[in-house]
Amino acid sequence: MPDSIIELRNVSGKKLRNINLPIFREEKVVILGPSGSGKSTLLRYINLLEEPESGEVIFDGKPAGDYYYPDIRKRAVLLPQLPVVVDGTVVDNLKWTHSFGSEPDCGDDFKACLDVVGIAHLASSPASQLSGGEKQRLNLAMGFSLNPQVMLLDEPTSALDPASSRAVHSAINRMARKGVGFVIVTHSYNEALLLADKVGIIIDGQLKQLGLKDDVLNNPVNGVREFLESHKDNNGSGSS
Q: Which of 4, 101, 191, 213 is deepest in the core (most CB within 10 A)?
């Protein structure tokens, strides 16, 4: 078994209690749970935008406190629910990402990053004129260009139509095959079904179940079963 890239050990704070979560390279972990259960807070703890009240966040076997936090935030890139773009072209947005002194994974060939997410043909287009799905893929390319170990996505397809969602899923799968791990927060049962290697269920601040997708979705424990059944009924979309 390979060592985890990042591990949360008995992490508690705000609404979360005793969260244990290992994250591995190339693995896509989808976190499901009701609104207000602490899913977004979990991402902020991994990224160290917030510090837990207790427990440890471990990077490559060492406590997070041993690192310079901005460096960790490049290795565990957190993308917001709504994509953010700046004035200029699509390529200008990638260059802006690196105006903070980062070394791009794709070198000076920013189009290589855009190709991974399927929008290389839009490299010279004004970023502000992209569709919602294209902006989301641009944000994925911006994150990927930082050469992260893990990308943290908060409801990445919640505002997208089905075709745009499929394009985002394809981009995530391609990045995972290039060695990036993912933790993806979503309300969508179908998104977990289509995208996850592992599924975690957070209810009332606790990680009630974590395991391989088929094990969790087909053999849920008590409490998780009721949550999953309700999300199957409404196709897992929207807030709950």
A: 191
Task: For residue 12, tell me if it sits in a domain.
Answer: yes
Residues 25 and 149: their CA atoms lie apart, in Å, by: 7
Whether the predicted pLDDT of 108 surpasses 90: no
**Is 1 a member of any domain?**
no
Residues 6+ apart with CB under 8 A from 219: none
Domain count of the fold of the chain: 1
User: pTM here?
Assistant: 0.90
Cα(125)–Cα(130) distance, integer angstroms:
8
Q: Per the domain annotation, does 59 fall within a domain?
A: yes
Nearest to 227 by CA among 183, 184, 182, 192: 192
CATH number at residue 213: 3.40.50.300
HSE, CB side, 13 Å, CA atoms: give it for residue 88: 12
pLDDT digits (tens, 9 = 90+) for 161-179: 999 999 999 999 999 999 9
What does the block give as tokens for 82? 């709504």
77 in any annotated domain: yes
H or E element that contains 174: helix 162-177
- Is 175 in contact with 139 (CB distance < 8 Å)? no
